[in-house]
Amino acid sequence: MPHGFSAGDTAYMLISAALVMVMTPGLAFFYGGMVRVKGVLNMLMMSFISLGIITVLWTLYGFSVAFDSGNAVLGGLDWLGMRGIGLNQLWTGTGIPIYVFASFQLMFAIITPALISGALADRVKFTAWALFIALWGTIVYFPVAHWVWGSDGFLFKFGVIDFAGGTAVHINAGVAALGVILAIRKRIGFKRDPMRPHNLPLVMIGAGLLWFGWFGFNAGSALSANGVAAVMFLNTQVATAAAMLGWLVYERIKHGRFTTLGAASGAVAGLVAITPSGGSVSPLGAIAVGLIAGVACAAAVGLKYRWNYDDSLDVVGVHMVGGIVGSLLIGFFATGGVGQTAKGLFYGGGLAQLGKQCVGVLTVLVFSGVVSFLLAKAIDKTMGMTITEDDEVSGIDQAEHAETGYDFTGVAGGSAKKVEAKVSTAKKVEKKVEADA
């Protein structure tokens, strides 16, 4: 083994990578429970396909573009196909092999485009979605990861702090979702039909898996089983709990009820916000980050009705807004004594770090938002991004995958033919109501 190799850190990072991988199916469950019955399988597949497409692209060129030494904008191409990497070659400044670091970062690359899918529920062609994430990963995610985390990336050199992915993952995916939303049509019945979650227990299972996997996402980003990882682990738990409480209090004041969907969404908002900031703030700061993010994201999800953009599952309100909140709050709550040396305004650092965070946030917002809009618009104008309105009414699961999430044949003692006849009648009634509207 090479000098400096750490078996303990390597084992820790392999476990962390596996935890982050679990987040993608967890996200699929989280999103899948939030859609209607007729779209659950498509929602699951939109996350699951990222495991296939991004893994192959990452191996071919993604890791090289994101993390090989290159220039301020793009990494080099020496590691195409993972060539030129020694079996026991260590990642710079760590005791772990490059292959372990590449595997860990691969899981980030997989879940980031999957996050976008929740904004597009019920209406996007599966083939168009697969093409979009392949292009988006190549043109947007891989370069942005280099900007933020590459040793020669311009945002990294500028001093923008993003411990585990507030800009590169959450703002990136959230504003990309907004770009695609603005490029394609809305769902049939948006702002008219309730479109309630069909399976809240599935949402809670997904949220639980996300929370569990996020410890690998955040604490693993320390790249070593050390004190920074310990603080990040604690801060992840603390901020998530505080955000869930903040969301629920806001919900109770605004709507008069505490809901399971609010608890799950609030937890995810806290996870998002602490991702960039958890390596810079104290546990008390993590409480503040979580509370602010929980309330801000809860307020933001309602803007889609006021501003008329169809964000199906609140990706913009939770991931973009949560990522912005977490990234900017570093400029206020960074202690200079956790995982970063920079100090925020409340710890005597003035406004310098806040200014750097603003530059990072705005750069990713503009680049990812514009490119994502153009990609979606180009796909929509060529092969078509959305399914037909008839297919949406009848159900995207059946139209795109020839499957349904639940088998209702024989329910309530009826024969299969009778059930099919009832379903057919219901679809005709639904189409008539939509036509009359």
Automatic annotation (TrEMBL):
Keyword entries, A-Z: Ammonia transport, Cell membrane, Membrane, Transmembrane, Transmembrane helix, Transport
Example of a GO cellular component annotation carried by this entry: plasma membrane
Membrane topology of this protein: Multi-pass membrane protein
Record Pfam families: Ammonium_transp
Membrane spanning residue stretches: 12-31, 43-61, 96-116, 128-149, 169-188, 200-217, 229-250, 257-275, 281-303, 315-334, 354-376
Subcellular location, principal: membrane
GO MF, any single term: ammonium channel activity
Classification via PANTHER family: AMMONIUM TRANSPORTER MEP2
Family: Belongs to the ammonia transporter channel (TC 1.A.11.2) family.
Subunit record text: Homotrimer.
The protein's role, per its UniProt record: Involved in the uptake of ammonium/ammonia (NH(4)(+)/NH(3)).
Protein name: Ammonium transporter
Organism (species): Mangrovactinospora gilvigrisea
